[in-house]
Request: fold
Amino acid sequence: MTARAAATAPAARLTGWDSIEFWVGNARAMAGFLANSFGFTITAYAGPETGVADKASYLLEQGDIRVVVTSGLTPESPIWNHVREHGDGAHDLAFLVDDATATFEAAVARGAHPVDEPYERRDEHGVLRLSAVATYGDTKHTFVDRRDYAGYYCPGFQRDGVPEPATGPMVGLTRIDHVVGNVEDGRLGEWVAFYEEVMGFTQLRHFDESQISTEFSALRSTVVTNGRGIVMPLNEPADGKRKSQIQEYIDTYRGPGVQHLAFRTDDIVQAISSLRARGVRFLAANDEYFRDVRERLGFLDLPWDQLQRLGILVDHEPDGHLLQLFTEPITDRPTVFIEIIQRGGARGFGEGNFKALFESIEREQARRGNL
Reply:
């Protein structure tokens, strides 16, 4: 490994999100849920029928978003062990890169723990080059080099025989906006340093417990980015009167992991209307929130009555506004959930909505007996 290669931070080679892979107990059921509830299309499948003997995977797409759901087929599968420990969860946050080997070598030279040494997957459409390093908990980052591969997604995936598109109103999700991770109390600085010093990301924003708190709980959060479309907030619990939502996640997931995925839309009113019609359940702000936000931000030219009817949260910053809403957890364990976000120029994360969001989460925690 040359000093020159190590000096080229991995972040400089990341060109965007490739995909997010969930390890789940039943891939067919989760794929159907994401298709029927969130409007994804199942576009490819890999499993025993396609030459992949030990697992079943479904590729789902919407806009530029690619999600893979994978389940193991034997008790010896590491996927079974992962699901037994964590429940269904996001295992692989995969990045597009210009060179999977160089990115991996640079990351390892700068201190990353290797998971998958550089390797190739081949078929009649060319060669796909991949490698992977560890990040928080049992999550990994795969580096995907597609320059010499003209096939669909990955060797072993076939487009024939996938389920017909689910019926329901179009949702209109367009891209991954950001992906949020939860880490243990006292380890936020360590993981921020990993992304800055090892991966070469930069710190975008930091929020302490005075900015993100309610009467009962608090958290700290730092947002890191590669400056080229990959944005990753990291959270840790802070001391409060009762259990932080982040600590509930850590306890339930049995360690650090992906808390939520934020999907961008160009029309959140249509998106949330469609998602509600499809049966997706969202966290709810109280009436006081909407009275307050309309008084503070009524100067914004927005469809206020529709936003309140649909429960959509509004925030404003010097560079613009944003609209957002958060689902309930999408699995039986209160872990991963989905955020839907529309940006009207704002580059933040809805700081003005933090209190309302966390109070909504705390109401759900109280119902579970975990607050």
